[in-house]
Fold this sequence. Notes:
By secondary structure, this protein is an alpha+beta fold. The chain has helices at residues 9-28, 37-48, 97-103, 115-127, and strands at 54-58, 64-67, 71-76, 79-84, 91-92, 133-134, 139-146, 149-154. Helix content is 34%, strand content 25%.
Amino acid sequence: MLGVPVDAWYVWLGLSLASVALVGVGATLPTAPPPAAGDAADTVDRTAATAHPTTAEHPLDARSIRIGPRRIGLRNDAGTTHAAFAFGPVTPAVASRALRAVLRGAPPESRFASGEALCDAGHAARQGAPEWRPVDGPLIVRHVVWEGCDVTLVG
Length: 155
């Protein structure tokens, strides 16, 4: 007569509550891994390390991105990841329309009067605090060398 009384109502109530709790925990688990910020940082580093003008793209599986001169952050429903750049500082080309145009392929001389003006715009862009913004496409990285200005644009 020692054992679990399987016909008692309180045993069935306890098992039902435990099952509901287990289903609730299972439903809240993320279905996708967190974004790979390290892979995006590697793309930026490979582009920044070249001696010649180069452009690279990296697909993103994140919903939000934060780019700073020395770090990148990616965020989706599964979590947030960060990675540091080995070749920094880079220039986040998100706030300046002219820098964004150069990042997307416009020749620097079509947006800036001189290499010094490009370097000044890059310096100003690196001074701003990085902010989270929605991802609207792949990460684009462009290393620009023009009239003595050597800058890596990221956006």
